[in-house]
Amino acid sequence: MGWFWAEKAPAAPVAPHPMPRGNAEPPPACPMHKKATPSAKEVPAGACPYVPPETASNASATPATEAPKQGFLSRLNPLNNMFSDLDNSRSDEQTQALPLSRETSTIPKGDGSLWEYPSPQQMYNAMLRKGYTDTDVTAVESMVSVHNFLNEGAWAEIMGWERRFSRGIVDGYKICKEGEERANHVLGTAEDPFDTTTWTDASIPPPKLLRFTGRPTEPTPKSQILQWLGRVMPDTYGTAPPFDRHDWFVERCNEKGCKEVRYVIDYYEGAPEPTGEPVFFLDVRPAIDGPIGAAERMVRWSTDVFWRASGGEARILKKVEEAQRQRKEKATEGKRQYN
């Protein structure tokens, strides 16, 4: 729960979820980079859902004698604060053509339309406007693909929470009480728990992403606790800190009306695949802005842990076997009476 794009959990487990190991900096193929901004900054409505945060100061505040930072990991991702006029024309510095089409996400906006991701050409132009003239044009398409993939993964996790708790804690408990696997069967996502579109409750509308903000220099309490545990018990809880943190604000509607729910997302880097592909882990959960958010997190975590620890699946299997035995006995008894 809360993890994305990994075939299996990392070797070092932590509670309540396994954490990745390795360098806290994202790999070169990834468009997400750590920033030093001291405060959160919301992005314009035309931007895309995942937008890494802005630097602490603008270009005018930088001393003239200071050399501009170079190197892929030190660069500002322009998608953090995408320009309102997304230039989609080829740049004079460009050595090869880039796709101009924009991919539409599966994430609905507040007005019902879908968020759009920037085209590779728009991303490249934005990076040039930020002053990063040594951007490898051949890597831009991969950067956009990873960026879009992470957005879809974050939204899939949020959809999982909303399917469980959109109607409230009581209904959420009924869905969660027999563990994650059975909850996915109830919700119709057993084959693909990371489904971003399935919404089986026809009586209430699905959630919408209203806005989002990056807060990389404000670690979440959970990530801080895990880092503290890692210092105390490194063999058990040792892990690199998240390389980014985002808050997504989601509209949740039910019979009582609509309200805004804040979700917190910690982004972790995992060990790359044998093929060299980067791996990321997303820890997505409702923010504890009040008792409701805390209760949702506790219900989902505790019910799954209790169900597995108490042998819930074994009890269900025993009941099924007992029911099968009784049916066989009745069938045998009926044959005897007939004979």
UniProtKB/TrEMBL annotation:
Single GO MF annotation: holocytochrome-c synthase activity
First-tier enzyme category under EC: lyase
Cross-referenced PROSITE patterns: CYTO_HEME_LYASE_2
Keyword Cell division: no
Catalysed transformations (reactions): holo-[cytochrome c] = apo-[cytochrome c] + heme b
Compartments, as annotated in UniProt: Mitochondrion inner membrane
Keywords from the named record: Heme, Iron, Lyase, Membrane, Metal-binding, Mitochondrion, Mitochondrion inner membrane
Keyword Lipoprotein: no
Domain of life the protein comes from: Eukaryota
InterPro entries cross-referenced by the UniProt entry: Holocyt_c/c1_synthase (IPR000511)
Protein purpose: Lyase that catalyzes the covalent linking of the heme group to the cytochrome C apoprotein to produce the mature functional cytochrome.
Protein name: Holocytochrome c-type synthase
